[in-house]
Write a structure and sequence with these properties.
alpha/beta; Metallo-beta-lactamase, Chain A; six-stranded mixed β-sheet; 9 helices; about 35% helix; globular
Length: about 260
């Protein structure tokens, strides 16, 4: 018995996820981007929604809360630090807390930056990480509310998780992230190989999600802000890695 994850598209470039605990049948939607795709996925699987786990307050992650709560009577868990910005939360959690969906336990990890209260959900037994907009395949979310230091600290915490962790992020941005990454880290063999695989997947109409965290550790420049070659690229030799992270984020913002 374990966790089954169903992956499906939502909105224009979001991903929706259903996390189904096999032992109990409880099923959580990870974020609530759009009701109709979530309903279709539930029907296709024959599952009943019991929970929604919210990562942050942006509308493309919370818009369907009210409709799904009315339809299924679900329990909605979300970030305590953003409770004033998200309607319909029943359970408030923060860094270090645990959330149970049936027999599956998720560790809550704070990842501020994209939003100040952004959290992610990590299943350490099954090796699943629902990272929303804190960590993308070959990228990270825009730093809308936070500052580079805490955002880099959050990324380092995710980087410390096991390499075989499967990451389920909020959006399909991998191809554009790969193009930027190659522009600043062109000699990275792991990145070049990953970019080729990504192109093949997208050209075939297939998703790049989930991805293995270990691959991203080697290829994602945002996870390598303490690598000397990236510091050299930005003329920041000897600088604090948080400053290099900030330079990478600024570079992607204007790429």
């Amino acid at each position: 018995m374990g966790l089954i994850v169903d992956v499906f598209p939502a909105r224009s470039d979001n991903y929706g996820y259903l996390a189904h605990d096999e032992a109990t049948g409880r099923t959580a939607a990870i974020d609530a981007p759009e009701a109709a795709p979530i309903r279709r996925a539930l029907e296709a699987r024959g599952w009943t929604l019991s929970d929604i786990l919210i990562t942050h307050h942006h509308v493309d992650h919370v818009e369907a809360i009210a409709e799904l709560k009315a339809a299924f009577g679900v329990r909605v868990t979300g970030p305590r630090a953003e409770a004033d910005k998200i309607e319909g939360l029943d359970v408030l959690v923060g860094d270090g807390d645990q959330v149970e969906v049936g027999e599956t336990r998720f560790d809550v990890i704070a990842t501020p930056g994209h939003t100040l209260g952004h959290i992610v959900y990590h299943d350490p037994i099954g090796r699943h990480l629902f990272s929303a907009d804190a960590l993308f395949s070959l990228g990270v979310g825009r730093m809308f509310e936070g500052t580079p230091g805490p955002m880099w600290d959050g990324i380092k915490r995710l980087r410390a998780l096991p390499d075989d962790t499967l990451v389920y992020c909020g959006h399909e941005y991998t191809q554009s992230n790969a193009r930027f990454a190659l522009s600043i880290d062109p000699d990275n063999k792991a990145l070049r190989q990953r970019a080729d695989v990504v192109d093949a997947l997208r050209n075939g109409g297939r998703p790049t999600i989930p991805f293995e965290l270990g691959e991203d550790k080697r290829a994602n420049p945002f996870m390598r802000a303490d690598a000397p070659e990236l510091a050299r690229h930005f003329g920041l030799e000897g600088a604090d890695p948080a400053d290099v992270f900030a330079a990478i984020r600024k570079g992607k913002d204007t790429f």
